[in-house]
């Protein structure tokens, strides 16, 4: 066998997965068909729990995060309605401003520093699998060659060739009547006010920057992109028919904005060096792979799910796929994975995708035209004034409403959820839980100095680290945390002492 794991696709999901495997002692090969990294404009931010996961890997600050740790956002939007988050007792919605091209660049450099074998200009043409391995035919710059691998992961995007080769259905729908047009543009400099964060229209009216606005004809957003350049995005329902044979233009975006806004905003193409965004897509494109696993082949990221970009959940969803799958594949390669561990990837991550497709469709519906929707928005806006409702919606947007399955018994409230950010003291040293997660290994944190935990976990010490620490007002007496940051077991007044069962469930038989 040539390699333990092949990753097809060198975008953010494939690169993060490669890094996770390296941390776990497995050296993958990444096959990327593009000879150079794409500079196309895609996402421009991370929103949700993945921001805290990057903090666990020590990447938050190097990726442009402010402060020593992620801070929750004070406000957000749901279906172009304001979400006021500053009053929430527990706000799980974290954000990190970073353009996807920059994110890919940093993840690629990290992967190469870790020793990942990244092969650009290599396209998988065929794959077949048997009980022992996956065989792939690859077209590289120097010709065709064959590789055999224990496992293969398709991180090759919405049009995934891997997904098609293994015959997994991509169930869902596409509504061609809902069209999004977006472009980087310039407007007369005199019309922009940085003090009030708005733009003056020729009519004298002003429209706000940053937030989505909904009218009775559609929805739009205008966001500063770089000095002198704005990003304009417009969504229309039942607009003029289009054909893919006609390239999108600035004039098309301007006309679309005019129809939605009801008046003109002079737009022109930027004069600064590109690449610049100019895109037309069906925004209501929602699909999920029927199975995330087919034998020894797995799907992650857009290869497993696509959805509307409203709310910016895509990278949060896809990168957490990689975090979830990486340590499980490594456990299988190393020979200590318990039965069913690889199947838990589909069982845990597909429901997460279902939640994202649900809330993005709901948000899109709330932004659609019509008096009935206007009335519905008034009802929802009133509900969002209630902290309980706002908290529930925020959990949904962050992905923190998904709770992974737990071991039998009466689980602690933290079990199955992403571990809380804890300030800790180990001996005379102050640290944080996030810093202890840097190596990417399973971690048992003893917060009460219970010596029996060391005796119980001794047979797993080759794969589970034990740390005794003290925390102000600890949420549990002890936490068993998986490499992806989720709590596998917790001990507390409302929990139970099924530690050995939890260790066996997630980390296999003792040595």
From TrEMBL:
Signal peptide extent: none
Keywords: FAD, Flavoprotein, Monooxygenase, Oxidoreductase
Domain of life of the native organism: Bacteria
A Pfam family: FAD_binding_3
Domain FAD-binding: 3-359
Keyword GTP-binding tagged: no
Cofactor: FAD
One Gene Ontology MF term: monooxygenase activity
InterPro entries (UniProt xref): FAD-bd, FAD/NAD-bd_sf, RIFMO-like
Protein name according to UniProt: FAD-dependent monooxygenase
């Amino acid at each position: 066998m040539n390699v333990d794991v092949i990753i097809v696709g060198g975008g953010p999901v494939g690169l993060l997965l490669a890094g996770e495997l390296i941390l776990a002692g497995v050296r993958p090969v990444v096959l990327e068909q593009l000879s150079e990294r794409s500079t196309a404009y895609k996402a421009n931010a991370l929103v949700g729990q993945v921001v805290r996961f990057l903090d666990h890997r020590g990447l938050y600050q190097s990726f442009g995060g402010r402060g020593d740790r992620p801070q929750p956002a004070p406000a957000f939007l749901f279906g172009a309605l304001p979400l006021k988050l500053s009053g929430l007792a527990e706000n799980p919605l974290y954000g990190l401003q970073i353009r996807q091209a920059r994110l890919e660049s940093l993840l690629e450099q990290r992967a190469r520093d870790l020793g990942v074998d990244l092969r650009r200009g290599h396209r998988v043409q065929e794959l077949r699998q048997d009980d022992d391995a996956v065989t792939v035919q690859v077209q590289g710059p120097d010709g065709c060659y064959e590789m055999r691998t224990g496992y293969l992961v398709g991180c090759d995007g919405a049009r995934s060739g891997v997904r098609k080769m293994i015959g997994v259905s991509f169930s869902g729908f596409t509504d061609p009547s809902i069209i999004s047009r977006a472009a980087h543009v310039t407007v007369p400099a005199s019309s922009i006010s940085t003090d009030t964060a708005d733009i003056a229209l020729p009519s004298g009216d002003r429209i706000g920057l940053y937030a989505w606005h909904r009218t009775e004809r559609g929805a739009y957003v205008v966001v500063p992109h770089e000095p002198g350049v704005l990003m304009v995005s417009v969504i229309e329902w039942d607009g003029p028919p289009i054909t893919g044979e006609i390239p999108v233009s600035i004039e098309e975006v301007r006309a679309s904005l005019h129809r939605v806004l009801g008046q003109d905003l002079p737009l022109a193409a930027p004069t600064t060096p590109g690449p610049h965004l100019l895109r037309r897509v069906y925004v209501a494109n929602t699909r999920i792979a029927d199975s995330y696993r087919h034998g020894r082949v797995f799907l992650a990221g857009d290869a497993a799910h696509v959805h509307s970009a409203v709310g910016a959940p895509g990278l949060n969803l896809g990168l957490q796929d990689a975090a979830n799958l990486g340590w499980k594949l490594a456990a299988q390669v190393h020979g200590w994975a318990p039965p069913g561990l690889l199947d838990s990837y589909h069982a845990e991550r597909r429901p997460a995708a279902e939640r994202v497709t649900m809330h993005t469709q709901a948000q899109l519906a709330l932004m659609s035209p019509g008096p009935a929707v206007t009335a519905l928005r008034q009802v929802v806006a009133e509900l969002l004034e209630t902290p309980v409702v706002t908290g529930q919606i925020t959990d949904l947007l962050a992905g923190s409403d998904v709770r992974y399955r737990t071991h039998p018994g009466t689980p602690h409230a933290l079990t199955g959820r992403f571990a809380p950010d804890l300030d800790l003291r180990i001996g005379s040293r102050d640290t944080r839980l996030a810093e202890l997660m840097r190596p990417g290994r399973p971690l048992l944190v003893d917060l009460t100095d219970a010596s029996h935990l060391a005796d119980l976990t001794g047979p797993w010490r080759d794969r589970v680290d034990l740390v005794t620490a003290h925390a102000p007002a600890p949420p549990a007496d002890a936490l068993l945390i998986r490499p992806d940051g989720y709590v596998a077991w917790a001990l507390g007044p409302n929990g139970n002492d099924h530690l050995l069962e939890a260790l066996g469930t997630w980390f296999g038989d003792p040595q």
